[in-house]
Amino acid sequence: MRQLDDGSVLLKWIVIALDIVIFNLYQFSICQLMCEFCYNVQQDFNVSQMFYVSNISILVAEALHAPVIYKYTSTYYDVVIRTIRITFIQCVAFFILLLFNPNVCNALLMSVLFSTGLFVVFFVLRSVEFLIIRKTRINLSNGKVSVFVGDLNTMDKIIKTIKNEIISNYYIAGYYSDDEFKSAPKWLKKLGSVSDFINLAKTDNQHKFEVVYCTLSWKDKENINTILSYCDNTTTRMYLLPSDVENPDFNMKPEMLCGTMVFTNHEYPLDSLGNKLLKRSFDFVVSSFACIFILPIVPIVGLIIKIQSPGPIFFKQERTGLNGKTFKLIKFRSMHVNKDADTIQATKKDPRKFAFGNLMRKTNIDELPQFFNVLLGNMSIVGPRPHMLKHTEMYSSLINRYMARHFVKPGITGWSQVTGYRGETKELWQMEGRVKRDCDYIKNWKFGFDIRIILMTIMQSIKRDKNAY
């Protein structure tokens, strides 16, 4: 069962690792000075032993009082108190360890001086970290709105858990409930009744929220299904925290949210922060080298395009990306400038294509500039192909859970493209097949899966895919 608070765990370990690095830099910079002041100059001082002893002491301090700045409710007062505790424990542990070193002439004085300087260093470090995390959280919260719907008692429990245990990138706009939440925090506002939210879910397919925390009873199946359908069609995450213990009758996956079991409409490998970092790191490295390779050929390709067809070298078009957000995709222009570019797909004998443009499409040369999209973070090398906004609007109303393909970044190539669903979709079943394969890719993602798709794409480019036109 997947844990949903891995982002906080990772941040906690990053802070601890940074503590260790800064601690050793501080130690290295003053080691010789303290040795001159606190050791008998007649005796040889073992610097490596000193580093070993001091690192044990800081590890003990971190284990007993780990940093708490990653927690949502942490205040500056908490940061200061925790810093004092860490440096005090480090001082005591350091002093005890120095007592066993026969070369030390004044263990107490050395421990106090060392830890006093360390407190100043850690205080500055924590202050900077505190401000950065708060600023980052505010920036990440923009546009990422979450709401609670349902039972107040369950709602109260999970709000306290979330605020105390995880670094929340979501701004909680308020709650929908039939009752008044008298013990609610001042920042949590009532937005309406459960019926108000259900009416919104039935009539409004706009992407208003990033997350819906539903605390209705399992017995309220009709309303839960309505909310579930709304979330699936608006790329909204839904976490169901039922107010009773009855066994679920829904196609939802159990997960652990800060020690509390919840049920979600989607559970994907790329929800894991570790997998996201792995995929993004690969994308960044490969796209960086690809962009360096592409830059010298841009003038050559651009000159040929200009000779054969007046107009810009690059074709830029708004496409649907991660979480249904719009971004501008960039390609080498392969068609004459026309008014139907944003509504009509390319066909096999499309009169809008010019000769070199047709060659580029068959060999995938026109796709190369999309590596700049990958470098910027709008796309991934592998993922569901981004569709025109017109097609997203059309197919989202025709194909159930069509928007689920947008829970990951779109890709230059994808599983549906290398398994026969590339190019024009003349009939609905073709788009349904593409969506199914895109969802299969998202559900079964592994790093090796991406490599396999990339290799298949290269082979198809060499063989010239019959659907590439």
Annotation keywords:
469 residues; alpha/beta; Rossmann fold; 3 domains; seven-stranded mixed sheet; two-stranded antiparallel ribbon; 13 helices
What does it look like?
- By secondary structure, this protein is an alpha/beta fold.
- It folds into three domains: 6-140, no CATH class; 143-267, 3-Layer(aba) Sandwich (Rossmann fold); 273-463, no CATH class.
- The chain has helices at residues 6-38, 47-64, 76-99, 107-141, 152-165, 194-203, 221-232, 273-308, 355-363, 370-376, 389-396, 428-443, 447-463; strands at residues 145-150, 171-176, 189-192, 211-215, 237-240, 253-257, 260-264, 314-320, 326-332, 380-382, 411-413.
- The strands form three sheets. Strands 3-2-1-4-5-7-6 form a seven-stranded mixed β-sheet, with helices on both faces. It has a two-stranded antiparallel ribbon with strand order 8-9. It has a two-stranded parallel ribbon with strand order 10-11.
- α5 links the parallel β1 (145-150) and β2 (171-176).
- α6 (194-203) crosses α7 (221-232) and α8 runs antiparallel to α10.
